[in-house]
């Protein structure tokens, strides 16, 4: 295919193609395209050179096949083939294709933004009201509760949680050797939000609950408001009792709110129990996890994985003398003090 | 319906006649407009010294720095955006936050990559958010504004390092707190002044919140930075 085209062009002079081709009457559609190729190809000067060299190499091999392919060519020729036939053209084509792919990707991004825009269609007052409502469980079980399908609030809450987690990690002196604190925090928060939403949505599908993925994302996202408040307070005020109270009250309220909304949209005792039990357990445990264990687990894991690789026996052997000397010292001190006491008496 | 179809058919038939038949070669003249030589000289930057080019770009960046410092003149930063200034500020901030933690491996200070990622990822998120809320600002304009508005925080970082040279007691912490708070509010105020005009009026608070969060995180990183001794 490519060889035949190259051959056709090189048989004539580089600029002599016009006359030959113009004479042929009926095939003018083909020939017009080819003329266009030659003229426009010459504007890419370096490409034209490569093209010329390639043609010279191919010329000998192509000459033999030229006639038979040329006959088949007219039928197949539909514009594009003539363009692809030359190396310079091919390179240009690839560049063009890559550019087109990039452009279409960028365009798709913008198209997706337009698709997502309705979910971000909120007023500040609405967001504020929803944040407050996320703390107020509604005891209405017989009729499906309204859940707003909106993503602005949840997104912002997740990012707030990321910032709070970063703060908590920094103040607790977490060291993550592979990767950044930022990545870990983002992964945790988005992982929880998207993962648990999908999981509960899957369960809701199994239990025949009337809820969409969007509503689930919104419900769980606003449920994170309680987490944000609790963690923000307890990362700065270090009282365990305060944390437990806040965990039960604020975390419990936001969980209850989600549970009530889910119950009102599910039918039957067992499905309700499964769905709400799972959600409540996951949500409350996540808060507990973020407060206590998060950085410690990460640190502990990393220490065991890639910390100072010291076998435990050695560590025991190193630790023992310390304990022993401490014990000996303690014994000495007690003996001495007893001696002193006896002596004074 | 049938009547409409009938009436349309001749129209389409007429349209098909208009098309140029394949036998006629397409002809025409192609004129290359020859510009006046004075105009060419004016816009040609090919034969000017490299120093001029660099200086011109640096002047443009410097002018934008001034615009951030006086956020009143709000159009210039948006009209011709560039990402050189943000890159410069971002790298400076990240390098200064890096501190001495390269030498001591145990240091939990912010890594270069972390600062870099926070700044660019955060700007992209804020930009996407403002697009989603119906803002009319273009993507890179917003990135440019957010990047340039880090400058007060970078300045605060320089001040903090200077203060930390003197010592790290309660007094130095209070000085740093004041400086960082001031520069944080400055950054938020400046970027808000540039960005809010392109947003629908009833949603300004929704756009400002992520900006606030973004600069708050950076400001907090600047404040809690302490070089490992």
TrEMBL record, chain A:
<dbReference type="GO" id="GO:0030154">
    <property type="term" value="P:cell differentiation"/>
</dbReference>
<feature type="transmembrane region" description="Helical">
    <location>
        <begin position="273"/>
        <end position="294"/>
    </location>
</feature>
<feature type="transmembrane region" description="Helical">
    <location>
        <begin position="216"/>
        <end position="235"/>
    </location>
</feature>
<keyword id="KW-0175">Coiled coil</keyword>
<keyword id="KW-0333">Golgi apparatus</keyword>
<comment type="similarity">
    <text>Belongs to the YIP1 family.</text>
</comment>
<feature type="region of interest" description="Disordered">
    <location>
        <begin position="1"/>
        <end position="24"/>
    </location>
</feature>
<comment type="function">
    <text>Involved in the maintenance of the Golgi structure. May play a role in hematopoiesis.</text>
</comment>
<dbReference type="GO" id="GO:0005794">
    <property type="term" value="C:Golgi apparatus"/>
</dbReference>
<feature type="transmembrane region" description="Helical">
    <location>
        <begin position="241"/>
        <end position="261"/>
    </location>
</feature>
<keyword id="KW-1003">Cell membrane</keyword>
<keyword id="KW-1133">Transmembrane helix</keyword>
<keyword id="KW-0812">Transmembrane</keyword>
<feature type="compositionally biased region" description="Polar residues">
    <location>
        <begin position="1"/>
        <end position="13"/>
    </location>
</feature>
<keyword id="KW-0472">Membrane</keyword>
<keyword id="KW-0325">Glycoprotein</keyword>
<keyword id="KW-0963">Cytoplasm</keyword>
<dbReference type="GO" id="GO:0005886">
    <property type="term" value="C:plasma membrane"/>
</dbReference>
<feature type="coiled-coil region">
    <location>
        <begin position="47"/>
        <end position="74"/>
    </location>
</feature>
<keyword id="KW-0221">Differentiation</keyword>
<protein>
    <recommendedName>
        <fullName>Protein YIPF3</fullName>
    </recommendedName>
</protein>
<feature type="transmembrane region" description="Helical">
    <location>
        <begin position="181"/>
        <end position="204"/>
    </location>
</feature>
From TrEMBL, chain B:
<feature type="transmembrane region" description="Helical">
    <location>
        <begin position="145"/>
        <end position="167"/>
    </location>
</feature>
<comment type="similarity">
    <text>Belongs to the YIP1 family.</text>
</comment>
<feature type="transmembrane region" description="Helical">
    <location>
        <begin position="81"/>
        <end position="99"/>
    </location>
</feature>
<keyword id="KW-1133">Transmembrane helix</keyword>
<dbReference type="InterPro" id="IPR045231">
    <property type="entry name" value="Yip1/4-like"/>
</dbReference>
<dbReference type="GO" id="GO:0000139">
    <property type="term" value="C:Golgi membrane"/>
</dbReference>
<dbReference type="InterPro" id="IPR006977">
    <property type="entry name" value="Yip1_dom"/>
</dbReference>
<feature type="transmembrane region" description="Helical">
    <location>
        <begin position="111"/>
        <end position="133"/>
    </location>
</feature>
<feature type="transmembrane region" description="Helical">
    <location>
        <begin position="207"/>
        <end position="226"/>
    </location>
</feature>
<protein>
    <recommendedName>
        <fullName>Protein YIPF</fullName>
    </recommendedName>
</protein>
<keyword id="KW-0812">Transmembrane</keyword>
<keyword id="KW-0472">Membrane</keyword>
<dbReference type="Pfam" id="PF04893">
    <property type="entry name" value="Yip1"/>
</dbReference>
<feature type="transmembrane region" description="Helical">
    <location>
        <begin position="173"/>
        <end position="195"/>
    </location>
</feature>
<feature type="domain" description="Yip1">
    <location>
        <begin position="70"/>
        <end position="221"/>
    </location>
</feature>
């Amino acid at each position: 295919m490519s060889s035949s085209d190259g051959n056709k062009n090189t048989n004539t002079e580089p600029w002599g193609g016009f006359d030959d081709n113009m004479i042929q009457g009926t095939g003018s559609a083909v020939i017009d395209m080819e003329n266009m190729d030659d003229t426009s190809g010459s504007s890419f000067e370096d490409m034209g050179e490569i093209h010329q060299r390639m043609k010279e190499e191919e010329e000998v091999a192509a000459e033999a096949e030229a006639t038979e392919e040329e006959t088949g060519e007219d039928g197949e020729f539909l514009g594009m083939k003539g363009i692809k036939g030359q190396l310079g053209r091919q390179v240009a084509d690839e560049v063009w294709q890559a550019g087109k792919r990039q452009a279409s990707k960028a365009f798709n991004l913008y198209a997706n933004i337009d698709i997502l825009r309705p979910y971000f269609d909120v007023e500040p007052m609405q967001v504020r009201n929803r944040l407050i409502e996320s703390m107020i469980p509604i005891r209405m079980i017989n009729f499906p509760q309204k859940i707003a399908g909106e993503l602005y609030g949840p997104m912002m809450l997740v990012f707030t949680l990321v910032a709070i987690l970063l703060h908590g990690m920094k103040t607790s002196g977490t060291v993550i050797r592979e990767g950044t604190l930022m990545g870990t925090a983002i992964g945790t928060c988005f992982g929880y939000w998207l993962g648990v939403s999908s999981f509960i949505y899957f369960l809701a599908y199994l239990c025949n609950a009337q809820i969409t993925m969007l509503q689930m994302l919104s419900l769980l996202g606003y449920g994170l408001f309680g987490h944000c408040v609790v963690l923000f307070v307890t990362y700065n005020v270090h009282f365990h009792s305060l944390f437990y109270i806040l965990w039960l009250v604020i975390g419990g309220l936001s969980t209850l709110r989600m549970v009530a909304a889910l119950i009102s949209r599910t039918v039957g005792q067992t499905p309700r129990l499964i769905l709400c039990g799972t959600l409540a357990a996951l949500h409350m445990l996540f808060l507990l996890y973020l407060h206590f264990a998060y950085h410690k687990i990460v640190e502990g894991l990393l220490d065991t994985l890639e910390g100072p690789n010291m076998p435990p026996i050695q560590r025991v052997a190193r630790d023992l003398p310390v304990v022993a000397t401490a014990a000996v010292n303690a014994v000495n001190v007690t003996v001495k003090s007893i001696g002193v006491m006896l002596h004074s008496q | 319906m049938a009547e409409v179809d009938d009436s349309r058919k001749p129209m389409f038939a007429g349209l098909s006649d208009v098309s140029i038949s394949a036998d006629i070669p397409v002809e025409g003249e192609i004129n290359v407009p020859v510009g006046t030589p004075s105009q060419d000289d004016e816009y040609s930057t090919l034969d000017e010294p490299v120093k001029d080019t660099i200086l011109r770009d640096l002047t443009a960046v410097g002018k934008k720095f001034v615009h951030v410092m006086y956020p009143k003149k709000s159009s210039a930063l948006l009209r011709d955006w560039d990402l050189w200034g943000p890159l410069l500020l971002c790298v400076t901030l990240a390098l200064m936050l890096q501190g001495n933690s390269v030498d001591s491996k145990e240091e939990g200070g912010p890594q270069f990559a972390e600062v870099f990622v926070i700044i660019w990822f955060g700007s992209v998120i804020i930009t996407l958010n403002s697009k989603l809320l119906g803002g009319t600002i273009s993507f890179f304009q917003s990135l440019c504004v957010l990047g340039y508005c880090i400058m007060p925080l970078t300045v605060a970082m320089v001040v903090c390092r200077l203060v930390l040279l003197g010592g790290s007691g309660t007094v130095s912490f209070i000085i740093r707190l004041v400086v960082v708070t001031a520069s944080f509010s400055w950054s938020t105020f400046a970027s808000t002044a540039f960005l809010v005009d392109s947003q629908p009026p009833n949603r300004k608070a929704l756009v400002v919140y992520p900006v606030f969060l973004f600069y708050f995180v950076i400001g907090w990183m600047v404040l809690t930075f302490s070089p490992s001794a």
